[in-house]
Amino acid sequence: MWKEGLAVFEFDEEQRLTQKNIHDFARKELAPRAAYWDASEEFPWESVKKMAGVGLTGLRLPMDYGGAEADLVTCGIALEEVARFDHSCAIILCGCNITGRVLLHASKIIRDTFLPDIVKGKSILAFGATESEAGSDIRAIKTVAKVHGNSYVVSGEKLMITFAEMLKNNTRNFYALVGGCKEGLSYEMDMASIAAGSIEAVKGRPFFVAGLCVTSPLTHTNDFVEELFACGENNIPVYIEADALAGGTAPFTISGTAVEINANVLGAVALAQMANPGAPCIYASSSGILDMRSLNLGGSAPESTLLHMAQAQLAHHYGLPYYGSNTPDSKLPDTQMGYESALHFLGCAMGGVNIVHVAIGNLEMMSLANYEKCLIDNEILGATFRMLRGIDCSRDAIGIDAFRAVKHSGQFLETDHTLKYLRRDRWETEITDRNSWDRWLSQTGGKDMRERAREKAKKILETHNPVYIGDKEAMEIDKIASIAQQEIVEIRRKYKG
């Protein structure tokens, strides 16, 4: 309102009543336990459920999902009154009601999955703010999301969050970045020990591999060497990865770049063995050519594929496994992506690459991730593996007896030989369509592979919700990850200073 020519802000009667009710609630229900939650370092689920019971966790969320669709002023009142008695609970409400609004722009699947549980206090939302340059200063973070068609492209860097999420949502061996300093591995070991039962169990049977990058041309930084030695001390396998750029940080020719990578990686392997004899090392590369038109990495250029084939042969010469390949240069799961992935996967496989590196589901040289591409890549890899198996030329496979049974001008569809080799000799497609035009239209509605892959990805996301680790263990892992983010930021700042 205006008073004597000045804008005066005052709560209306309904807002004052809201303020009083939330104040009384927080004083009675939240304040008595606030000190306990801080001292015990437990997550205050009990308080969250109480806040949900009076509608605070869904204040700004839509009524369709059980929320109140309150305005920002009312939300601000709630946050202020809750913060008077329990600051942690106020931060949680920020996540639910402010970060939660971001989900309104997500797909229906995501909205339906998360919003009702947020309103009910069964789930909460959080945001990853910590960055190497910004700490947790929200104003200084560099991660951005830019609109691209109907999607968002997110770019930026976070610390330790990925390791924690991989650990909680996976049972397979996975790739992990150490964090740019040896202390990062210590935090990762602590998190892994929660899943494995002890640090010794992790050392005895590691289930993650550290990705450490040498610098081209021919450089091992202090941070790299310290991380390399720390991994050897803990028996953690290491991908010693060269990311050379032919024509930029390495000679223009494929052979010249191959020599630079070989010297750089072998030098690091030698260091690892001198410091910790028997330390598990994997020869690795995500190298490629410098495209002279765009001055970008041409990761899926034929020359880059040849480079990985050469590196695989060199690694095998030294008795080392090779971890390599690149992602497509395409920005979308389009025709360019299809031919780049197919040629690159097949070339790398035929050259002897043991582990395909970062290529699945990624685009624009690891800048973009895409669900449809995961399924299309799976299809391409299935075909690639079948080609690697080659042709069975045994007498039985040739089918001499089948020829005798069918004789001239017969058909082999119903022979025992066909039934025997039906699944043994053929690769079965999952999203590839080989129907006639009419059947393709009638069965898929004329959808192309990208559309079919998108539908299947949505179905997987809707129905595949495995739980790999208990709530208590997950909370412990998150706690360590949170501490690690803060500590590593400070450590890296000191190193740079």
State the gist of this model.
This protein has helices at about 15-40, 45-55, 70-85, 85-95, 110-120, 160-170, 180-195, 200-205, 220-235, 255-275, 300-315, 335-350, 370-390, 395-400, 400-405, 415-420, 435-445, 450-465, 470-495; strands spanning about 1-5, 5, 145-150, 150-155, 175, 210-215, 240, 245, 280-285, 290, 295-300, 320-325, 355, 360-365, 370.
Structure description:
This protein is an alpha/beta fold and 497 residues long. It folds into two domains: 2-120, Orthogonal Bundle (Butyryl-Coa Dehydrogenase, subunit A, domain 1), CATH 1.10.540.10; 157-392 and 460-475, Trimethylamine methyltransferase-like (TIM Barrel, Alpha-Beta Barrel). It is 52% helix and 10% strand. The chain contains 19 helices and 15 strands. The protein has a six-stranded parallel sheet with strand order 5-6-7-9-12-13. It has a three-stranded mixed sheet with strand order 8-10-11. Helix 3 runs antiparallel to helix 4, helix 9 crosses helix 10 (254-275) and helix 12 (335-351) packs parallel to helix 13 (371-389).
Sum up the structure in keywords.
TIM Barrel, alpha/beta, 497 residues, 19 helices, Butyryl-Coa Dehydrogenase, subunit A, domain 1, three-stranded mixed beta sheet, globular, six-stranded parallel beta sheet, 2 domains
